[in-house]
Structure formats: structure tokens, C-alpha cells
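Sequence and fold
=================
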Amino acid sequence: MLFWETMKERYVVATIKKWNIKIFEEKIKKLKGEWYLITDPMDLNLGKIEYISPKYIFFPHWSKKVPKEIVSNYECVCFHETDLPFGRGGSPIQNLIYNGYRETVITAFKMTENLDDGPIYIKRKLCLEGLAEEIFIRAAKVIAEMIEYIITHNPTPKPQQGKVTIFKRRKPEESNILLSDKLKNLEDLFDFLRMLDAETYPKAFFEINGFKFEFSRPALRTDFIEADVKITKIKGSEDDRNKKI
């Protein structure tokens, strides 16, 4: 057998979320080929990528800008939880749930210098029921299956087709329950609470009398919602200022 016939293809997975890291360790790194995991944005540099020389770089959840020289010289595969070109932009899961969607698709597409506009490899369905972190865990499993399909079949990405719609990345202050104009009933409020319940995401909250109330682990019952509530004193509130007088 010739030397180059024994060489393994190399692949990189770049992600910052624990659910994607977990699925990498449990499944992805056991796929055929030689696998590398990058979790620190500082490690995603041209020198390291040139050393690895991967066939694909997969980005299941990456919020930092990828250097132009990497995008231009390597096949970078990004995953987005909308049916592109619908829903380009930030906070796709939250924007979908906030607008009443119960299911979506994950789109695997070739990264370009423009936001979410690259040609598409494959799409797979994703259920949007449950808490945000449960959805992300579910998505990580689907993405692992998509990665296996891509390295096995090497699909040719095809240009996006259809009407382009853009999602704006949600800001932390938009998690304030009192600022939302879409909460008409318990179901709406439950969706608002659950779509924000994931590690590193700003929880649903409101502020009153110098205190901040943050909600997690919501459960929708017949006539009410149960949830954990974290109450903290707001720094610089009027009571704090009075103590210094």
C-alpha cells in the first residue's frame, strides 16, 4: 500500500458551546479521519490551520469573525438554524420562537465573507420545543449527523434560492419581559422564558424597586407557569445610593 493511500483526511471543528464540545467528544471525533477541536478564538489562526491542513473546517456554533485568509483558502462549513436564505443574521432560535415557529431546519452552508449567504450543502429538520438549551443540545446531535454526511458524500454546495429575510441579533435588554409587546397570554410568556433559558444567554427578567428578577427552568401548567427565580440587588439602585448618604 502506498503512503498517501494510508493518510487520513483531516478535519477541524471550531465551537464555543459546551453542548457542541460534548457531542464532538462523544461522536464526531470517532468518525473516519483525523479530528481537531478548537474552542478558543485565539487558536483559530492561519498558522494553526495551515499546520493541520484540513479538508473541512466545521463551525457548529461560533460567534467570532473568522479571519478572511481562512475563509478564502479553506472550505469552511457553517451551521445556521433557519431555512436559508430565510432568517439570515443573529439569534435564529430566539427570533424563530419569538415569532411563533415550532420547527425549523438547520442549514449547512459554505462560509463566505458575507453574512450567511454562502451556497448550501444540506438541510435537516429541527424541533423547537423545549428550553433553549434543550434545543441547542438537540441541534448539536443533528449537526453531528450532518457533518458525518458531508465528509462521507462530499456534496457540492448549491447557491441559495428564495427571498432573503434578516434576523437582528437580540440584545441583552430585549430579555426584559416588561419591554415585550407580544406577551398576550401564558403560552406567549412561556415561550419567551424558555427561548432564553440556556447557558451564557441573558435570561428573561424584569426589574422593580431596585431588584432584578431572572427566570429559568419554566414549566407551563394548565393555568399558570412555574419557574426558578433568581433575585439580585441592582447595583447603583436608589436604596444603595441612600445607604451612602
